[in-house]
Amino acid sequence: MGAYLDAAAGAPLHPVARDALAAALDDGWADPDRLYGAGRRARLLLDAAREAVAEVLSVAPDRVSFPANGAQALHAAVLGTLAGDRRAPGLVHSAVEHSAVLHAAEAHEAAGGRAIAVGVDRFARVDPAQFAAACGSAVAAAALQAANHEVGTLQPVDEIAGRIAVPLVVDATHVLGHTDVPPGWSVLAADARMWGGPGVGVLAVREGVRWRSPFPADERESGRVPGVPNVPAIVAAAAALRAVEAERVALAARHRAWVARIRDTVARTVPDVEVLGDPDARLPHLVTFSCLYADGEALLTGLDRRGFAVSSGSSCTASTLEPSHVLVAMGALTSGNLRVSLHRDTTEAEVDEFLAVLPGVVADVRAELGAAGL
Amino acid sequence: MSTSMTLDCRGRRCPLPVLDLARHIDEIAVGELITVEADDPAARPDVAAWCRMRGHEYAGECAADDGTPAYRVRRLH
After folding, report:
1. Domain that holds residue A304
2. Residue B3 pLDDT
3. Disulfide-capable partner of A169 in A24, A28, A143, A188 (CB 3.0 to 4.6 Å)?
4. How much is the pTM?
């Protein structure tokens, strides 16, 4: 009973990753920069993992590095691209980027730089012309997610890449392993947790793009990530990525059908609900909706009691008590917000059970608030 | 332009300000304004969203005497 439906916060470990992790803990624990046998074995594993990830991204292996996690990959991607062009102070980004990008933008501003947030439409999509127009002469870099992490809408990355002259940092966190990665990126960041790998980030800098480490650097990872890399985690992440790439098209088709069913059914069975994000140009595995007269925290608790793990962008579920900046930017209802995200182990029976219990959970929360009949 | 009713939702957390609004909208005449004074930041998007979902007009934001954000809604039906 119940199910984990919060893959966008981290998918369960892929079985291939589990096996690769166990093997690499035995064979890849040593420092890969050491010249003795154990070091050389770790180096071989790390090189093979890097090649596998580079192949999926269609770049040379030396363009790929592995930060400790997704947030650090985003920080390095944004701030390193800005550091590559110190003559221009500006960073352009969408208003609906992941908080790690917004935190990098804040750090850039605190250091004397300028950040320009571009607004979005009701689906959370930026307008390509408006975004490109913001990338004027005093701008060093632009940052745009490939897909929004809260409502699943795909962004027009390639169209924007064709219109701007500055490097485009693309947050590929929720597309890599789930749908096509738009090739318009100059610098890319991702997070292995989203495709069933362990916690490790990916940073890729395309050939010819100027990127300079914004942090103290050493000679590791092409000077992009200091310190000894977590070889077992990187090996497992790469193995999982190769595995999910092989099953991706079939899995995405299945998820797309279930997400469409969730969108239709929720709109039909839950009164006063807004289903969010673009209905078509969207991630295959993620769906979000907001319920009027319901608080997100009570919905999460009610669903958790029935064994369902989902997430919420409502203010009452945030440590800051602020509603999600994504929902605010798109002008959506923020109360009673729920995000459901599927992974390779999700079954049709779990989706059906979720859809069966949801109307009752929402009704209970509304009854508790005295909202019946309003 | 006169305001017909003001709701004090200070300290009321999301989604309570919108519930207060829904409970009192029928107490003003069609075409008149009701003002929701609310310090929860979620009230800003949610009052506007409620107007869209319920077919009333969101008439914009002002500030109460103490600086608390106030959201104005015109009853349309």
Report:
1. 3-9+248-366
2. 57
3. A143
4. 0.96
